[in-house]
Amino acid sequence: MSQDNLIKLECTVCKRTNYHSHKNKKKLKARIELKKFCDWCKKHEPHKETK
């Protein structure tokens, strides 16, 4: 997997980076937002893509 396709997902509540994922940056220009489980909040929260 290419390093330039990797993205970090940050919890919108506690602002901690919990996940790493990948996306096709040529097709998806906007930042993605996924609902994932946060280990610190102990519940499912929206996670946004960071730099």
Structure, explained:
The protein is about 0% helix and about 50% strand. The two termini are about 20 Å apart. It has a single domain, classed as Rubrerythrin, domain 2. It is mostly beta strands and about 50 residues long. It is elongated, with a radius of gyration of 11 Å.
SSE topology sketch:
Elements lengths: L5 E6 L5 E6 L10 E6 L4 E8 L1
Neighbour order of strands in the largest sheet: 2-1-4-3
What structural class should be given to the helix and strand makeup?
Answer: mainly beta
**CATH architecture designation:** Single Sheet
| DSSP strand tally | 4
CATH domain class: Mainly Beta
Helix percent reads under 10%
Largest sheet: 4 strands, antiparallel
CATH topology: Rubrerythrin, domain 2
Structural features:
single chain; 51 residues; mainly beta; Rubrerythrin, domain 2; 51% strand
What's the quick description here?
By secondary structure, the protein is mainly β. Helices cover 0% and strands 51% of the residues. It contains no helices and four strands.
